[in-house]
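Please study the protein below:
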Amino acid sequence: MNQPLRIGLTGGIGSGKSAASREFARLGVAVIDTDVIARELVRPGQPALAEIVAHFGNGILDENDQLDRTRLRRTVFSDPAARRQLESILHPRIRARADALAREAKGPYCVLVIPLLAENEDDYALDRILVIDVPEELQRQRIAARDGLPDNEVEAILAAQADRAQRLAIADDVIVNDHSPEHLRREIERLHQLYRAAGRSHKA
């Protein structure tokens, strides 16, 4: 069976990946978000959550025995070894689920939203990569406004991710998202036409 074209969508925190993925979904495109998959994998009763607790301890759970994502984030962003351990637990499971969903996707192409794609590019079979880019100062402003994080936590998150140049180096397509939502929408609609045509050729 012919598979849809796979578009990897990535960008740094605060770049507008979620807004971009919503625009693709509005156009009827199958969107596979690895952050959503990750949240599903750490629900109570899931093997991945049990493995995380076994490694990091019960302190990363809240009073309802659910993963306290803020507490875990603070733990791993301050400790590269801990971050690698968490990734070794989650990434293979995320990749397998994303691949399965992409195989089931309808239409000429699908979009896989992968925040850490520049760090894990070889883990995913993709036909094209779209980077949502944003100037770093605007990125910092958006993170602080959206998440209410202190400057030191913002800097720790940015330091743990690939930098802007590394993301742009893997890009086939780039949207600089420093304009209005309407600008982002127009750019997504433009790429939608490109990807739809390429996907039809890919399936032919």
About this structure: DSSP finds nine helices and five strands in the chain. The chain has a mean pLDDT of 89.
